[in-house]
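Structure tokens please, single chain.
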Amino acid sequence: MSSGCLVICDQEEEYAAALADFLARKKGLALSVQMCNDTAQVLELQKNCPIDILLISSKCPKEDRGRIRSVNTVILTDYRKEETDENESAVYKYQSGETIMRELIGKCSKMSVAESLFLETVRKKSMKTIGIFSPIHRCGKTSYALELGKRLSVSQNVLYLNLELYGGIGGYFPETGQTLADALYYSRQERKNFGAVLTGMVRHLGSLDYLLPVRISEDIKAVEPEDWICLLEQIAAYSLYDILILDIDEGIRGVYSILRLCTEIYVPEVTDEIGRAKMFQFQEELHLLGYDDISRKITVRRWEHDTGGTIACEDPAEAGYDQRN
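Here you go.
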């Protein structure tokens, strides 16, 4: 349930409606979103609905803006370098909704109630962590992870993280924007508003949320195991996700520590002789190193996809084939 009110006031009705729709669909935003086209509507609205955050066009006269009572007011400017009063906070309106969200969180981060505004206080009972892993390359692991995430996100809040040395940024994933490396940085700072920051960083593939992969492989190789664990624990504690999907690369540090944190581990099925041999060696290594608990979590999943785009993917709710190890 929303605990506050965010009002967008802009004469451009289509723009205001699009921004309101984007913010209203943002997971974790504990604010009801209202849209107005002039200050008269806002003044009428505030009689019954105290305004926590007001996003208002710079075209609205300053004297009219001053009549509106809002805990935090941000001016929507038409130009990147448009002048505003020193005591006014501003954001350029013609940029992506993701960027506006991030800037809005940053501008409100000094507020003592910022976390309660951007992250609902009702927490889920627990978060399931699904690890997607394979010692075999080119087995369709990432395609499987994304397809599984899309299917599960139809009915639940799902976040996908790509923990690969080469996750596909600049190719499959957009090239610009904050990445998993930025999430790790904020996690290390132990910021109390981590949940709000995460809300502003995520991208979307339909109903599936994700963070951009790390750009430089050497950067992800340098991440210590305890940093991964801290990040995953913070996501579980300060977000509203029901399921976290980890697309895991064997080249990262502490890979077994991460697999141990997973509730379930899915390995795409391989049928060729070399693939089966690699899988056998992997399972033998788990046993020799004392990771039998990881082995017990592993389920081999049937996964087929062809160049024409046809995809057949099992998810936990459709277990027609289930080979436990």
